Amino acid sequence: MLTDVWSIGLLSCSAVTLFLALAGVRTGYRIFRYWNTESSSELQIRLEEEVYLSAALVEFGFVIQLLSVLMLVLAADYFSTILVGAMCAAGALSANPFGIPALLVKLVTLFLSAAWIVCHKLDISSEYYPLVKRKYLLLFCILPLLFLDATLLLLYLYNLEPDIITSCCGVLFSDQVGDGYNLFNVLPTSGLLALYAAVSLVSASVTLQLMSRRGSSAAVPLTGSCAIGLWIIFYFFSLLVITVHTSPYIYAMPHHRCPFDLLKAPYLAIGYPLYFLLHGAVIAGISCAVAALTENQRGLALPAARLRFRAGCLSLICMLFFLLMIVYHPLIYLLRGGEG
Amino acid sequence: MLLGNVNRHLNILDYALGSLWRNRFKNCGVLLVFSLVIFIIASFRLVTSSLDNSAEQVLSSVPDITVQKMTAGRQDVVQRIDIAEIAGIFGISEIKPRIWGYYFDELNGANYTVIGDAAFDAREQLPGLAIDYRGTYGERAGVSPVVVGQSIITSKNLVVRNSFSLFRPDLSLKSFYLSGVFAETTSLVTSDLIVMGIEDAADLFGLADGELTDIIVSVANPTEIDTVARKISERIVGSRVITKQQIRKTYRAAFGWRSGFGLACLLGSIAAFIIFAWDKASGLSEEQRREVAILKAVGWQTTDVMSVRFWESVVISILAYVLGYLMASAHVLVFDGLLLKPVLLGWSVLNPPLSLLPVFHLSDLLLIFSISVLPYLAATIMPAWRSALVRPDSIV
Amino acid sequence: MITLESVHKWYNRGAPNAVHALDDISLFVQDNEAVCIQGPSGSGKSTLLSIIGCLFAPTSGTAIIHGKPLSRLPDRFLTLYRRETIGFIFQRFHLIPGLSVIANITIPLLPLGVSLSERRHRAERLLERLALSHRKDFDIAHISGGELQRAAIARALINEPPIIVADEPTAHLDEQLSNDFMSIIAELKADGKTILIASHDPLVGKHVAIDRCLSMRGGRLTEPER
Predict the structure, then answer these.
(1) To the nearest whole angstrom, how far is the Cα of B45 from the nearest Cα of chain A?
(2) What DSSP string runs through B207-260?
(3) Do B246 and A84 touch (CB under 8 A)?
(4) Of the candidates A200, B100, B257, C76, which lies 20 to 30 Å from B242 by C-alpha distance?
(5) Bridge-partner residues for B92, per DSSP?
(6) Do C77 and A127 touch (CB under 8 A)?
(7) Hey, how many other C-beta atoms are within 10 angstroms of the C-beta on B96?
(8) What is the pLDDT of residue B223?
(9) Which pLDDT belongs to residue A164?
(10) Which residue of B has its CA nearest to C114?
C-alpha cells in the first residue's frame, strides 16, 4: 500500500525528518571536531553560527515527528477500514510485525529530540557552551533511530495487504487467557493500578526532590538519572493503564480496549488533551532531570536552576491533570453504581 | 517567561508581515505557485473522498453476504439446491437466489450489468435504491419489465420509446419494457445496470433451470456476518463468499490506490516547487543584506532574524494552503472535479453522470499539510539561516 | 567605563589580504565621559568603535565594557550585551526603508518581547524630546536629513543604553544640523551617558560637550592636539 495517500504522507514526513537530521549531523560533526570555546578564530565564529542552524533543524524535526506520530495513528485508523479484520488503528498497526515497533521508535525519537532541545537551550544560556559536545553526541545517537524509524515505517506500509486478516483491538487487548494475543495481561488490573500508583508517586517525589534540591549535590546525578528512567516507565505504564483500564469506561464497552479510538469524535476526542498532558508531563519531567544533571556545568547554575524549577512544576501539574482525567470515567461509573 | 516568549514571537511576526508586504511582488509569485500545487493535491483528495462517500451511500444496499461458486479458479453457476445446504445456519434472516451477469451489446460496444432478482416485481418499486418508477405502462405479452440505469437510456435510445430488445445466446430476441430508471445520484454503480426478474435473466443468458450466479444472504446481526460467511464457505464446497464489508474495503482500496498513484505522479512537481522555494529563499538582495545587518547591529540575534524568515515562510505557506484548498473545494463543488474525474473514474463507454459532494476530514487537512507545507518550511530553514549570517559590522 | 588593553584586530589573518586594523590599542574611558576619536579614513576608527560597540570581539587583548570582559565572548552574548549597553548611531543612519519613523525607532525592542503599547509609549517619549512627534508615522523616505539624524538617535536611545557610540554622525550633514546634533549629544552627556564619537569633523572635536579628543593613525592611538 505504498501508493496510498496516507503512505505517501507518512513517508514524506520521514524523508523530511531524515534530511533535517542528516543536515544537523553534518553540522554537529564539524562542531564536535573543531569546537574551541577559547578561540576567536573565523572557524570558531562560523561554528557558533552553525549551532543555530542545527538547533533550527532539530526543533523543526521534533515538530514533524510529533505530527508524524499523530499521522501514523490516523493513517492506521484509515487502514483499518481497508484491512480485513482490523477494527481500529490498533488492529491495523498489528497487521504485520513492523507497525507497533515503528510507533514505539517514533515515540523514543520524539523524547530524545525533546531532551536535545532542552540541552541546547541550556547550552546556549552559558557563554562557555558547556554542553556543546555532549548534545551533538546525543544527536549522533538520534540519527540511527530516525533511520530505523523510516525503515520500519517503510516495511510496515510495504507489507500491508488489503486482504490480510489481522487482529482487532478487542482480540489484541482482551483479558481472555490463552488466545495468543495477551500482550498486556501479565498482571491483574488491581495489581497494575497499584503498581502504577506507586510509579506515579515515586516519579512525582523524585521530581519534587530535584526541584527543591533537597539532599546532597553528590546524589544529583543518581537522582536525575533515576528521574529520567522513572518518567519513561511512567509513560509506558500510563499507556498500559489507558488501554487496559480507562479506555473501556470511556467507550462504555468492557472489551473495547484501544488507546487510539480515544482520538475520535464520538468520544469527544478526549485522547488529544489526555495525550497532550501525558507527553507534556513526561517531557517536562525529563527536562527537569536534565537541568538538574547539568546544573554544575560552567555558567549553567542560574539558567539550569530556573529550568529545573519551572519544568518540575509543569510536569507535576500536567501529571496531576492527567491522572485526574484517567480516573474520572471509572470513578463516575463506580459512583453511579456500576460493577468494578 | 512564557508571556515574554509569546510577545517576542508576536513582535517578530508583526515585523515579518511588514517585510512580506514590502516584498509583496516577489512573494506573490511563490504564493501563487504554492497555491496551485496545493490545489492539485487537495483536489485529488476531495474527489477521492466524494467518490468514497458516493460509493458508501450506494453500497448500503449491497447484500450482507454474496455466495458464488468457483470451478478451476473461475466463477461457475450455483445450483438452487445449494440454498438448502445453508438454510439451517443460525443467524441468517433471509436467503435469495440471484443471477448477475454481463451482456455485451454489439450495436454500441457497451457492456451492461444484468441482475435477475427473485423479488423483482414491476408492480412495486424495488426497495433500497432511488428509482424513477414508471410502473407497468409498457406491459404486454412476451415483453418483460426492467429497471435500467441512466447510461442505458442513452445507449438504447429510450428517451422517446419505452421498450427495447436484447439477443439471447441463440440469437433470438428478448423484449423488455421500462418499469423504472435508477436515479442519477446512484450512477456510480447503476449507470450500466439492468434489473429484471430472475426467470427473465435466466432466459436472457440461456441458463438451465435451477442455475444461478449468486446466492444472496441477509444476516440479522451485522456483527455476525463474518461468522456466518465462514460457515457458508465450509458448507458449500468450492464457494466464494463475499461480505458487504469486503466490497466496501475493495472500493476504498481502489480509490485510495488511484488517489495515491496520482499523488505519486505529482511528487515530481512538489519536489520542483521545493527546489524553487529554496532558490527563492536563498537569494538575498543588497537591500535585504543591509536590512539584516541593521537589525543585528541594533541588537537582533541570528535566531531573531531566522525567526523573521521562518514566520514569513509560515505566513506564505498557510495562505497558500488556505487558498489552494478553497480553489480545490470550488473545483470539486462547482466544477464537479472536471480535471480529475477522468483519472479517478476510469475509461468506459458508459461513463456515469455523477455529481461530486466532497467530504472534509480533519485528517485530510493534516495529510495535505504534511506533504506540502512541512517540506516547504523544511526547505526554507537553511536559506533562512544563511540570510541571518550577515555581519552587523558590514554597515559600519 | 570602557577599558581596552593591548587590543589587536586582524582581518583575514594569515591570508595575503590580511589587514592589521588595530595595533596595540589601550584606552580608558570614564563613565559619563565624551570622547572624540579623530583620524583619516582607514585609520581604524570604525574598527575601534565596532569593538567598543560590541559588534565583534578583538583578535587579542582585553576589552572590558561596563564591567563585562568581551574578548572571548561568543557572538550571541555579545549581541545580548550590545542590546542592553550600546546605542549605535551609524554614519548613514541606516534606517530601514519602507518602515515609518516610529517603526524604525522601536525595532530594537521587538526581540525583547516588549508589548506594542509599551513600545509606542517609549518611542513617543523620545520623539517628543527630539521634536520629531509630527513625523512619527511618515515613511523615512519622506523626511529630511535632520529628521533622519534625530530618528537614528532615537533608535539608539530606545533601550536606554548607558553608552552611545556614533560613527561619523555629521559626515552628511550641514553645519546647522551638525550643531543640532552636538547639542543633543550635550544633553545626553548631561543625562549621564558615556559618549564615543568617531569623526574627522573639527566642529565635533572642538565642541564644548567633548571632554577629550584622541587621534588615530595606522591603527594606533595618539594623544590629542586640543
Answers:
(1) 8
(2) PPTTEESEEEEEESSGGGHHHHHHHHHHHSTTEEEEEHHHHHHHHHHHHHHHHH
(3) yes
(4) B257
(5) B219
(6) yes
(7) 16
(8) 78
(9) 45
(10) B7
